[in-house]
Design goal:
single chain; 2 domains; binds nickel (II) ion; about 140 residues; four-stranded antiparallel beta sheet; Alpha-Beta Plaits
Amino acid sequence: MIQRFGVSIDDTLLEKFDRFIEKRGYVSRSEAIRDLIRDALIESSIEENPRSEVFGTITMIYDHEVRGITEKITHLQHQYIGEIRSAVHVHVDERNCLEVVIFHGKAKKMKELVDKLSAMKGVKNVRFVFTKVEP
Ligand code: NI
C-alpha cells in the first residue's frame, strides 16, 4: 500500500532540494525522497549491525609512481579474497590509476578495508557506496 504524507519545509530549503533533484535527474520529489529515506535506512541498519552482509563498491584514485603502492594494494586485496568479487583498473594518465573494487561481505570488514586503503600513501581519494538487497 502506498501512503501519502505532507512535509512542512521552508522555501529556501525546498528550492535547494528542487535544484538537487533536477541535477540528479529525478522526475518527482516523491521519488527523490523515497531514495533518500532508503539510503538513510540502509546506513543506519549498517551502523546498528556491523555484521550485516552488504554489497559495495570502493572507488579510488592513486598515484602508481609512489614506491611500492601497486604491490601494497594488490597485497591488501589478497587479504580480502573472500570478500572482493571483482576489481577494475583504468589508467587515468601518466601517473594516476583508477580502481573500482566490488565487495560482498560484512559491513565491518568493508569499512576496515576502506580505512586501510585511505591511509595508504599515494592513495588520493577513496569513495565507497554500500547497499543491501533489503530493504
Ligand atoms: Ni594504472
